[in-house]
Design goal:
mainly beta; 343 residues; 4-stranded antiparallel beta sheet; 0% helix; 39% strand; single chain
């Protein structure tokens, strides 16, 4: 069971100012100048959505930026309701939004809707497209965009390899967890099989195929970080040139930096969930505890687009901290949900 289940899901969103807390900026969903505060779904500020969820289009008090930086404006929070907190407002997507993540260009959001299907939409909740329909008897979670531009192959540098453009997600069926993937344009999901094949040797020790959860794709080559629940380990799978999977170490809920060079993950230390980071290079195993003085739990980490900041969920909302661990976490929102940065 993932760490996030300790906290449950907030039934409403409230962007409230707290002493010393800096909140999300008051820009609109497109990160431009703020317009009218009515929601895309036609809601009126301060009124409940039709399903009883939180108001849409409510501006954050003061309109302050997260940490005073422009890139931090891209922080979004999904709470399992119809509304998503972003840029000082709450946007009504017209359907339940679970485990929202953003495409590499920031133009589309992917999430699991109220029917358990994989859906993408524009940042204002419009233009929803069902990428894959849940066949029933399964629970899908944590979709992530696996994208890699074309590049030279190992055998023929002059040729271009196939480009990845998938949604990687977790499927739970009959208590068994597996990674699956589906093209972002839609199709039938297929099992993603982490494996090793150095020099074509298929007899190498292979990573576990079940119990895999919390998929997070990133980097320039479509690498996929994930956690294996039975082993309590974090892995990275890279299939860009040849299948390669390496064990990062003990932890859960991994997230890859935008350039793929570092990974942040969660590990329990002295009764609290801490955030750790390290290089993704297999021969550089030095780790750093970003929250050594933690007196609360930091979970579900996400990287800012410039790779300088990490956002994490706490029991009190969302906090951010420098990715190099040079400062302690700062609470930036009282919204309780899954943080994600829109590029």
């Amino acid at each position: 069971m993932s760490v996030r289940n300790r906290f449950g899901t907030a039934a409403a969103i409230a962007l409230m100012s707290t002493v010393g807390a800096v909140l999300l900026s008051a820009c609109g969903p497109d990160n431009s100048d703020p317009g009218p505060t009515a929601s895309p779904g036609g809601g009126t500020p301060g009124t409940a959505a039709p399903d009883g969820s939180s108001p849409s289009g409510s501006p954050a008090p003061g309109g302050k930026e997260v940490n005073g930086t422009s890139t931090a404006n891209h922080l979004t929070i999904s709470t399992g309701t119809r509304t998503v907190a972003m840029n000082g407002t709450t946007v009504d997507f017209g359907t339940v939004v679970r485990d929202l993540s953003w495409s590499p260009d920031g133009k589309r959001a992917a999430f699991v809707d109220g029917n358990g299907d994989l859906v993408t939409a524009a940042p204002d909740g419009s233009g929803k497209t069902t990428v894959a329909r849940n066949p029933g008897g399964e629970t899908w979670s944590h979709p992530s965009w696996q994208h890699a531009a074309k590049g030279p192959s190992a055998d023929s540098p002059a040729d271009a390899t196939a480009r990845f453009d998938n949604l990687v997600f977790v499927s739970s069926k009959g208590g068994t967890l597996r990674l699956e993937k589906v093209p972002t344009k839609g199709g039938t999901p297929e099992v993603l099989t982490p494996r090793n094949s150095e020099g074509g040797n298929e007899n190498m020790p292979q990573p576990p195929q079940t119990g895999n959860t919390w998929a997070n794709a990133g980097g320039q080559r479509g690498e996929v970080a994930y956690a294996n629940t039975p082993a309590g380990e974090v892995y990275i799978y890279d299939d860009y040139l040849r299948p390669n999977t390496h064990d990062i170490g003990r932890g859960s809920q991994p997230a890859l930096s935008p350039d793929g060079g570092h990974i942040v993950f969660v590990r329990s230390v002295n009764g609290h969930d801490h955030l750790f980071t390290r290089s993704t290079d297999d021969d550089q195993k030095a780790e750093k505890d970003l929250t050594p003085a933690a007196t609360t739990d930091y979970t579900e980490p996400a990287w800012s687009p410039d790779g300088r900041t990490v956002a994490a969920r706490t029991p009190d909302g969302i906090s951010t901290l420098p990715a190099d661990g040079s400062a302690a976490p700062t609470q930036v929102s009282t919204v309780k949900g899954l943080p994600a940065y829109r590029p």
